[in-house]
Amino acid sequence: MKPIRDYDIYVGKTMEFKIVKINQEFKNVVVSHKVLIENELEKQKLEIMSKLEKGQVLEGTVKKSLLMVYSWILVE
What we know:
Layout: E1 18-23, E2 28-32, H1 34-51, E3 62-67, E4 71-75
Antiparallel strand pairs: 1-2, 3-4
């Protein structure tokens, strides 16, 4: 997930948030949209992983290459 550079694009938008912290003393509430997105991405990942089988042929776009001892790529 990429960091947000310009928060102004969200001004006036209606979005869903998850309450992650309530501070009664300062009457402050911390909310997160990112938590909702991460939860949804995790669900999608689990669903996709459950459908993969050895020997399957898939098509995808290379998003990232990790070259260490082994060669790994992230495909979406």
